[in-house]
């Protein structure tokens, strides 16, 4: 059963489902349906396709993802970042033939889906591990701004057509000052926004978004406002069906590059949304499973008259705010779309566009995490900068480009931390067991004739020379009596070839000055790495010690003829045990029985 649940997450959802989730899921599905209709139809037109294909690209992927998708609240559907790319890919090949354009869009979705499924099978979903919390905070704040700006014209009853977020913002200001605001639409839009937040503040048991949708439709119908007010309009007719006729193998070749690009964008966008909303709910999402689920949803949608889709940054927050618990929300939305298409296609004829804009904007405002940004600034300025980079990158360059830029900056920050890690010389502190950072314990002393050093990072090409120079400086400062350097190597989790050469040079330098290098607490895989580099003749078994304490005991016993230099009386040992519990990172390690790591 666990194996089935891994590939079909719906099995686990059904097994764990609670009765208390049923009404929240149904309620959220009803609310989200109001957004699925205009979004699907609108993005289909942007992609150069008939509006009804946008509904097909909503219904089928929602049902498929509910079975194979791992995220509990993610809503899939046509997306603004994909629609222009789809149009650029299929319209030159369609040559004005709309039925051929639909077939090409379906083929493109299938190709995107196959690439994503293959990526999931070979576990490429690990890239979601690169989406750290600062990136997610910055991304969601940027998405919130993008959604708010995109919906503001609809809220006020006019439209703008700009090629960028900044262009949209400038155009909105110009239109407002030019008097383009429609008072009736603005009344519905702003009024809906105020009512949503009022009901939320009053902790209304009925979601404000559902209230404003119903009330707005009733008002528009009763007072005959659909002719004076921008509305969603009636639903197109027809159910999802295969529409892949007339395709050739040459079309596959022509769509290969766009399919790869769309797959990358769709997964990146979906992965950030999925992981972010999962974290907000205390859940976890497997990146590879997410990739496969998204792929299957695209294959299913493409086979039944749709086009490529991804996670929706506008509909998912609405679902969450409406109380969605599981993917039953998406199933309810898909089923309601089918019911409306068949039974009451004219229902949305009275739904004001301004009200929908208010619903989307209210959800976007809920995404803004000011506290998260303030917390990052207070706790870690580097993480705060990364979050700001994600925010600005997504706003200025787009979702994929902004995330890629921020991940690149994250790697730079990681390399910088590893390049200049924390370094410590260790010594004795009276009354404490083990060996401790002398810079944090000024009362500590070196073990006579021994320098103990710790380097808190893997050794690689960027920090090998720094490590070498720093150890030499410690030896010089300790004076001419030094006969042994002990490297507390537990924090060193890897050594590359460049750093290994630096270690050899350091060993040569110490040997030339009559000093022996002992490596303590090095993990077995790292020892194996040194062996693979052919350094077993140089670093023989007697050059390794299981602990720093064991190395010092052996050295002091050899040099002095006894072990008094590192033994403590019983009272001091007991006191040290109590104090060690709070010693934290200052400890190089206790003196447990010797062991290999």
Strand content: under 5%
| Through-space gap between termini | 37 Å
Question: Helix fraction?
Answer: 55-70%
- By DSSP, the count of extended strands is 8
Largest sheet: 6 strands, mixed
Q: What best-fitting shape do the alpha-carbon axes yield?
A: elongated
Q: SS-based structural class?
A: mainly alpha
**Domain module tally:** 2
Q: Order of strands across the biggest sheet?
A: 4-3-5-6-7-8
* Cα radius of gyration in angstroms: 32 Å
Q: Report the uncertain regions.
A: 558-597
| Mean of pLDDT | 86
- Count of helix runs: 23
What's the short story on this structure?
The protein has helices at residues 2-7, 9-16, 22-46, 51-68, 83-94, 98-121, 133-156, 165-177, 183-201, 208-222, 249-281, 287-303, 315-321, 328-342, 353-367, 370-379, 381-397, 399-419, 464-478, 497-512, 524-532, 548-560, 570-580; strands at residues 76-77, 310-311, 423-427, 436-437, 450-455, 484-488, 516-520, 544-545.
């Amino acid at each position: 059963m666990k194996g089935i649940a891994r590939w079909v997450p719906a099995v686990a959802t059904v097994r764990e489902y609670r009765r208390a989730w049923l009404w929240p899921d149904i309620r959220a599905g009803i609310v989200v349906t109001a957004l699925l209709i205009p979004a699907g139809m609108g993005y289909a037109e942007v992609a150069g396709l008939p509006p009804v294909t946008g509904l097909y690209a909503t219904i089928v992927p929602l049902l498929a993802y509910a079975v194979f998708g791992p995220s509990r609240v993610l809503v899939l559907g046509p997306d603004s970042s994909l629609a222009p790319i789809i149009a650029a890919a299929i319209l030159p090949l369609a040559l004005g033939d709309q039925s051929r354009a639909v077939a090409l869009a379906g083929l493109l979705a299938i190709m995107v889906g196959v690439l994503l499924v293959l990526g999931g099978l070979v576990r490429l979903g690990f890239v979601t591990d690169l989406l750290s919390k600062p990136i997610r905070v910055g991304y969601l704040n940027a998405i919130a701004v993008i959604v708010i700006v995109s919906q503001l014209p609809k809220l006020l009853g006019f439209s703008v057509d700009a090629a960028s977020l900044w262009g949209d913002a400038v155009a909105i200001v110009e239109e407002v000052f030019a008097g383009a605001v429609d008072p009736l639409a603005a009344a519905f839009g702003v009024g809906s926004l105020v009512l949503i937040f009022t009901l939320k503040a009053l902790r209304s048991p009925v979601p404000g978004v559902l209230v404003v949708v119903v009330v707005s439709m009733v008002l528009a119908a009763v007072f005959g406002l659909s002719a004076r007010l921008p509305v969603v309009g009636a639903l197109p007719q027809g159910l999802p069906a295969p529409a892949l006729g007339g395709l050739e193998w040459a079309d596959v070749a022509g769509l290969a590059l766009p399919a790869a690009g769309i797959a990358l964008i769709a997964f990146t966008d979906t992965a950030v949304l999925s992981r972010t909303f999962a974290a907000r709910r205390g859940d976890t999402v497997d990146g590879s499973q997410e990739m496969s689920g998204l792929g299957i949803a695209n294959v299913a949608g493409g086979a039944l008259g749709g086009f490529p889709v991804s996670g929706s940054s506008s509909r998912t927050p609405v679902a969450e705010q409406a109380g969605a618990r599981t993917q039953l929300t998406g199933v309810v939305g898909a089923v309601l779309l089918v019911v409306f298409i068949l039974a009451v296609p004219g229902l949305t004829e009275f739904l004001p566009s301004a009200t929908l804009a208010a619903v989307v904007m209210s959800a976007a405002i809920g995404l803004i995490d000011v506290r998260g940004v303030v917390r990052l600034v207070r706790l870690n300025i580097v993480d705060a900068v990364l979050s700001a980079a994600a925010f600005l990158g997504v706003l200025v360059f787009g979702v994929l480009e902004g995330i890629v830029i921020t991940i690149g900056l994250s790697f730079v920050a990681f390399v910088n931390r590893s390049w200049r890690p924390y370094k410590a010389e260790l010594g004795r502190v009276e009354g404490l067991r083990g060996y401790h950072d002398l810079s944090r314990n000024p009362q500590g002393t070196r073990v006579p004739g021994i320098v103990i050093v710790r380097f808190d990072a893997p050794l690689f090409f960027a920090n090998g020379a720094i490590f070498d120079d720093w150890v030499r400086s410690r030896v010089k400062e300790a004076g001419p009596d030094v006969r042994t350097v002990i490297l507390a190597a537990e924090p060193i989790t890897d050594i590359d070839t460049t750093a290994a050469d630096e270690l050899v040079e350091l060993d040569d330098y110490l040997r030339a000055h009559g000093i022996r290098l002992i490596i303590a607490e090095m993990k077995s895989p790292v020892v194996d790495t040194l062996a693979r580099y052919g350094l077993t003749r140089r670093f023989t078994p007697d050059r390794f010690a299981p602990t720093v304490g064991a190395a010092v005991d052996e050295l002091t016993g050899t040099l002095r003829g006894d072990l008094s230099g590192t033994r403590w009386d019983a009272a001091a040992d007991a006191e040290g045990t109590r104090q060690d519990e709070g010693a934290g990172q200052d400890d190089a390690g206790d003196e447990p029985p010797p062991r290999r790591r």
